[in-house]
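Re-run with default settings, no changes from the original entry. Doing this only to confirm the output is reproducible before filing.
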Amino acid sequence: MKYLVLGSSGQVGYPLCNYLRNNNHEVIEFDIVEDELEDLRIKNNQLLQKYIKECDFIFFLAFDVGGSRYLAKYQHTYNFLHNNILLMCNTFDLIKKYNKPFIFASSQMSNMSYSPYGVAKAVGERYTASLNGITVKFWNVYGPEKDLEKSHVITDFILKAKNDKKITMLTDGTESRQFLHADDCSECLVILSNLYNSLDRDEEYHITNFEWNTVLDIANELASNFDNVEVIPALSKDMVQKNKRNEPDEYILNFWKPKITLKDGIRKIILEMKNEN
């Protein structure tokens, strides 16, 4: 199978490409951080058209997005909205033209109408349904990150623990989240791609570990992997999700179950980041 991974250098895309190759699949990578020609915002992008035409399946992971720090700063800006609308319009047009099977990566935030990011993902879900594709909803997937400006909470905390010997938090940490290691996510995505033609389009596919942890729990667990690292919560509350708590649909467990515990996943990321240095 020849897979096209849009957003191949991202937190999900990078491990997904490795997983696909390790399972003897051919992979076409496509990500703006690797080459400016691989920009989904370019109208009539000939390189994108070539790859979509020749691939067997598409993982649409690319999006202008980052962790809470990035979203708090940018999601209400014109450029954030414009970037995401452009890349969706251009990509969905070509998927429609060549009638390719695909999975669109949405978010558990897509029902949060006060979040421009959530609204943009909801629009992508509607496009996907109109093309008979499959939408998956990610719940705080964590893995190796190259673009530290857009890094997510676990990467941010690791960097603070390593460099500052203290984890200064953006909030009081009482907000609850569900986290999933990118390797588990990659396995799930490939399973869904193999089942693509038989999957029920009326069901929701939530990719998560189905366990709740507060962000303060994450900080304390991460700090325990270092010597003498202090955790310092802030006074403010979460203003990105505004402490809204969705409950994931468990239908996905009919096909796949997560394997990597949060404790093991955090240790795995710490080790990978140490090896990179």
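The two ends are 34 Å apart (CA to CA). The chain has one domain: 2-276.
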